[in-house]
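Researcher: Can you fold this with protoporphyrin IX containing FE in place?
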Amino acid sequence: MDPGNDGKRTRREFLKSAVAVGGTSALSACLGVAESGDGEREPVPTGVEEIRTLPDRQHAWRDRIRLDQHSNALLPRHQILFYLTLDGSGPPDQGARETVESALRTLDRAYERSHEGLLYSVAYSPAYFDRFEDSLPESIDLPPPRSLSDFESPDLDTQDTLVHLASDRADVVLEAEEVLTGDREQANGRAADARLTDAMSVDSRRTGFVGPGLPAERQGEPEGIPEGGPVPEKSPLFMGFIAGFRKNQASEEYVTLKEGPFAGGTTKHVSNIRQRLDDWYGEQDFDERVTEMFSPGHAEEGLVENVGESLGASSGIERFLDSIDDDAEEFGRVGHAQKNARANRDAEGNVLLLRRHFESTDEDVASLHFPSLQREIAHFEGVREAMNGADLAEISPAIRQRVNNGILEYIFVERRGNFLVPPMKLRSLPPARP
Ligand code: HEM
């Protein structure tokens, strides 16, 4: 895995997978690239001494990332998810809580809370809260993860803690990782006070990337993407379209818990979804892909150009919801966004889910890490049920469990986990009833 001296191409190839590979050699390679002409690392903006100057919500990312010209969020390019297990059984003690808090404060001081520095959040599973005698307040909907369709059997993530790191800079996520869980003693030039692994052990490390160019650049590597480079250069995702238009996403405010000790927090469902895109690119033409991703109406009216920039700030899916049963009959196909949007609004028309998914080539397989934030896990489960499209399969014989049913033919759920993202003040090993 050493980049070696075999010429620039080898080094570039190595850098592409540096975050996936991880460890000190990957970090050194990235730091090498982050050096400007004078051999110094391109500066990383530093963080704050006073944690109270940071937002109360760990999930407050939108004001701290890039937006496109329609104010659609552009998620940080490089991301890492760590699933950790607490040492020992029973509830954590005060010592462990202080260790975690000082490890996190190291990050707060070292890196600006932004896409140019580091965005991160720490979340806890139902299994973690089971360590306490008291249960979570009743107003919090955080069931254990479960299978959400008849045709999936995911591994369930029941580790205690999920740490999510994100930055536009690969060297920053790798360095933060080494500081939290490795033996790096400095974060952006500042001494690390404690490491997360003094209180917990890493059970699983998952990585990914998102944004124009990155999937195309990596498409030759993983299993699941056909040969011939079908992923468009400008696509932020392997499937070739932009996702997460501003008006099709819940606001951070909407997904925030409003009352009780965890007010300011949110719930997070994270799935991992393997992709097999041979037929997506090999057997479907562009209009068929638009039909299956958005709706038959989007294809008929030519609403989607290239990777979907023509849609602006909204997929415009609302216009195609009432006609979904007719579409099923007439076209023998329905769209992914069209199905999901049916269950993704409250009575006032507010969107329920804030999706923040990114691509992965972990284990050399094309997959998607899919964090979704919502006030209740039930909101996510409701949308997923709508996505299963069982009702539509009853309308048209052409629509089956996985065929002509949005994008279900090409995606396979491998893992699911549910977490509570507490507000900042409870981010370090919170009790179930603070
Ligand atoms: C490889 C997997 C996936 C890809 C590439 C993908 C991509 C997309 C795209 C391009 C859209 C339309 C644009 C937008 O509104 O963002 C969309 C909409 C949506 N997707 Fe996915 N998606 C995937 C999996 C999922 C899964 C597993 C869920 C979970 C339930 C989901 C939930 C949604 C929702 C809620 C919408 C918005 C519908 C609305 O307007 O309310 N997606 N997705």
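Model: Folded with protoporphyrin IX containing FE in place. The mean pLDDT is 95.
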